[in-house]
Amino acid sequence: MNQVLIFDTTLRDGEQSPGATMTPAEKLRMAHQLDALGVDVIEAGFPISSPDNFLGVQQIAAEVRRPVIAALARSSDLDIDRAARALERAERGRIHVFIATSDIHLAHKLCITREACLERAVAAVERARRYCEDVEFSAEDATRTDVGFLCQVMEAAIAAGASTVNIPDTVGYTHPAEYRAIMDTLFSRVKGIERAVVSVHCHNDLGLAVANTLAAVEGGARQVECTINGIGERAGNAALEEFVMALRVRGDSYPFHTGINTGEIYRASQLLTHLTGIHPQPNKAIVGKNAFAHEAGIHQDGVIKNPLTYEIMTPQMVGVPSNALVLGKHSGRAALGQRFRELGYELDADGLDRAYGFFKLLCDRKKTVLDEDLIAILHHGNIEDAPQRFHLRELYVVCGTRRSEARVRIGDDGRECEAAGEGDGPLAASFAALEGLVPFRVELQELEVHSATPGGDAVGEVSLRVRVDGKELTGTAASTDVVDAGVRAYLNALNKAAQIHALEAKALEDSSYLWGV
Ligand code: KIV
Ligand code: ZN
Predict the structure, then answer these.
(1) Per residue in 437-463, pLDDT tens?
(2) What is the pTM of this model?
(3) Residue spans per domain, the chain
(4) Domain 5-276 in this protein, CATH class
(5) pLDDT digits over 191-209, tens only?
(6) Which of 72, 79, 170 to mutate to test the pocket of ligand 1 (most atoms within 8 A of CB)?
(7) What is the fold of 390-505?
(8) Which residues partner with 457 through β-bridges?
(9) Probe residue for ligand 1, chosen from 10, 138, 199 as the CB with the greatest number of ligand atoms within 8 Å
């Protein structure tokens, strides 16, 4: 069988990237896009870790029907029961249990013997099997585990009922030849391995995640765990788009296929960028801003004569829209709807009305409206990712070479309130004013401004990361005025904080579970 299953863990391992926290509604939006992309499995979260993580898995399980929905659990009864509960409404649910198997983790983290580890792995798989047929077992830090013990654990997990066994390179330590050798050993020594799908899960600490993944697939692995834009713990996970396009472009060397609709890759990458505020670096393969840009004259000359001279794949293959000049002041709703459709976004009547309102405002401020502007409109303000408790009503800023002053009026659950603030620059002054209006302690951690399109009148996208009462949250917004976008991004993060507070209060009220990992 040459089909390789794609297990997307953007919403679980990916969300563990610093600053990539998403609300349950944002995760649901991303899950629908992953469904459109054609992934086989969506790892939706780690339900025991927090009430909003639980809710995220629960909502995805209830609404996203085609892919398998997986939930992560440590090898403990409480974790497994919680994962099973979150998956109750899934069409096809999977419990993914894991335990570390390397001596270094056993001795220093879990403080247990290899025998106890083996027992816990088997007990976890057996417990998960009571809830569902589809159980995945992962040996955390597998690539630094004694290979004889790894074989023993895998054999026991398969005998206990695991239908997928995963060999994670948790700390991104292995290299292609070594990983391939581990696969060869497992396939030759583990009894019953033909009854399970062998999975790979690579981290990118040495920049080898995709190379290692390809080596493991050559060695017989048939499930690949990866994330959009390669986000994930530390240096990230293997990037879905890089692995999938390596198979597509180099099918001569890698005769494997996936169910991925590559034309949806760019849309998935953009959506994740907008939701998390984490932009892929410009030279990132496949989805970076420069991935298809030819700068050197000699390259441009070649591409004009024949694209094959310098292009191994076309932007269209991954769904990058052409940077065409599109609509203007006199364009109507139907033309806007049609252009969104051409870009691959189907809007309902309400969505189109909202987008049209933003589009008209944009036309007043900007001479030409490009595809990227339209996508920015769509992602910022057209879809609500958290209930909108706080709304910006008015912003007035005075700035110059001396300290800046701002006055901000917001709506808070229907109530209007206003405050003034001072700071070093217009954004700092606006944030100082906002702090006086909201019931949270907010610390700004990071703020980035990106322009969606070239030119002085470009739409500016502001992404920021704040710590609200100890929790890291991101906010994003777009406007032709970066101060306005900054304030809206700040409120976007605070609306998420308000939702998380409400969820936590509710969970505390009606549950006896202990949360946290
Ligand atoms: O990197 C890792 O080991 C993991 C496991 C939980 C699969 O993410
Ligand atoms: Zn991982």
Answers:
(1) 988 889 998 898 888 776 667 778 898
(2) 0.86
(3) 5-276, 292-320, 325-382, 390-505
(4) alpha beta
(5) 999 999 999 999 999 999 9
(6) 170
(7) Double Stranded RNA Binding Domain (3.30.160)
(8) none
(9) 138
